[in-house]
Amino acid sequence: MSTQTLLQLNASVFSVHGQSSQLANRFVKGFVQREPSTQVVARDLAKDTVPHLDAERFQAFLAPADARTPAQQAVVDFSDALISELQAADVIVLGLPMYNFGVPSQLKAYFDHVARAGITFRYTATGPEGLLTDKKVYVFAARGGIYQGTPADTQTQYVKDFFRFIGITEVEFVYAEGLNMGDESKANALAQAHQQIERLSA
Ligand SMILES: Cc1cc2nc3c(=O)[nH]c(=O)nc-3n(C[C@H](O)[C@H](O)[C@H](O)COP(=O)(O)O)c2cc1C
User: Is the pLDDT of residue 11 over 70?
Assistant: First the structure.
């Protein structure tokens, strides 16, 4: 049986209590049952927050390695550690809530720290090239309303585009929508998402 590394990123501000985290956990549990040798690395973006990218932090990324100040080196070390986790992962599981029509700012801050020129992507004469390869992403999207397939779904294309930019093209979504539209809607949405998770784990 092959040993795989699975990186679980939970983006809910409610940590393990978030609906997206619970769906992601359910998938990871099934995955590990199927592949018991899987090494799971969990990162809770609500607990271990990633600072917003500002000019100072971005400057640290651009500074030549031998000219970095200690503060800049600390910023680079932090970003490098996040990237190492991604590089080591065969499978990435993302718990993705919708907040105010977008992805949680915690996740955006994380993306801003793992998109590093020369490390996770590079520009070539024919356009950008992602440098992370052979990984699959599963996204568990929890939403109060219903957006899938409409222009108001600002998350699906964005998340796919981001992962493609760093080289990961296999991105599969499981949605639980209408979670704030009454008990029946919530129960149906979760039941459907659970069924999909079971299919993915079969
Ligand atoms: C601050 C905040 C903003 C939200 N904004 C939206 C929104 O724009 N659209 C939507 O459908 N649901 C919205 N919701 C509902 C969440 O998408 C829903 O509660 C979902 O379960 C969140 O995922 P989580 O439980 O994993 O955190 C919002 C919830 C919160 C707490």
Answer: yes
